[in-house]
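Researcher: Go.
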Amino acid sequence: MGMHPLVSVVDDDESVRESLPDLLREFGFTVQAFASAEEFLASGFVGQTKCLILDIAMPGMSGPDLQRELKLRRQDIPIVFITAHGDNTVRPRLLEQGAVDCLFKPFSDTALRDALNTALRVS
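Model: Structure:
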């Protein structure tokens, strides 16, 4: 991996899985994208992931479900949640449960970069 920390993107939206990794690579990260929480957990990349960009609402296991599952597995990965359907109660609750940030789509490149920088300082 060297100097390029691995950021894993978990989002059931294909357009996000296509556009976000390009942006993250521009920021200098190594990226893996997954269509579901289950796919991420089965991938073998969990232990290497330095930050997780995680959609909240997905079919099957939701983002917060995955957050809880990782805690149970003692995998302390900083999480930046992204959502298209957030309301004002969502963000404080997720931050309380240990997320680094919660960004509402569409978010700016700068907001994402700031959240990732925070996440990588935390880890």
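Model: Strands lie at 6-10, 30-34, 49-55, 79-83, 101-104.
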